[in-house]
């Protein structure tokens, strides 16, 4: 199964071709106010972070650590999204939130039809110190969902202006590909823009392994990179193979 995301927005007339750089993203829609703004806005995809509430009732909520509470539960969030033609990317921050969240997805969304991405960092990446979600447990949980989803499977990473920043190593990409090889779902690999100039050969190899694979380029708020760092990716790969979840000014420059 290949990624249906672009086809969905083409069929709605929101983009004109299979160019993933044309998709616009909204981030951290982890409150009622931010979700309402995202639903009113021009974005195609809405990203939010999921964990279990830190007190009773322990249910999935929208919040980013270290926050442990929110003014909106996942069920309420999904019910709002259901009335719109936006895709969603749910970023899991704890393994314990996965199973109850997937049950809600199946119950609330049913045959909704819009893109649903399920994101987790499952392996350590360049200079990554955060603990990834346990890979096999996450993949086993999402493997049980019957709704069509895109799995967004990444590495924990860090970037600093004060030191050298190595790219994604061969061991990292080979380990990830081995984990994803047998999955039935489309898989997108979130990769950090500031690390891509030194990772081209590894990413080229990774995308060659399956037509189910894409990249999603993202950036941290303090990261430094240039459009030139991304141009080899834009020129070499099919435009449907790489999403750009980066500043609109940079993303639109790539579209020229």
UniProtKB/TrEMBL annotation:
Regions annotated as coiled coil: none
Listed InterPro entries: Menorin_dom (IPR019356)
Name of the gene this protein is made from: FAM151B
Protein species of origin: Merluccius polli (Benguela hake)
Domain Menorin-like as annotated: residue spans: 19-250
Name of the protein: Protein FAM151B
Family in the record: Belongs to the menorin family.
Highest taxon in the source lineage: Eukaryota
Pfam families (alphabetical): Menorin_N
Organismal lineage: Eukaryota, Metazoa, Chordata, Craniata, Vertebrata
PANTHER family in alphabetical order: MENORIN (DENDRITIC BRANCHING PROTEIN), PROTEIN FAM151B
Cellular component annotations (GO), alphabetically ordered: extracellular space
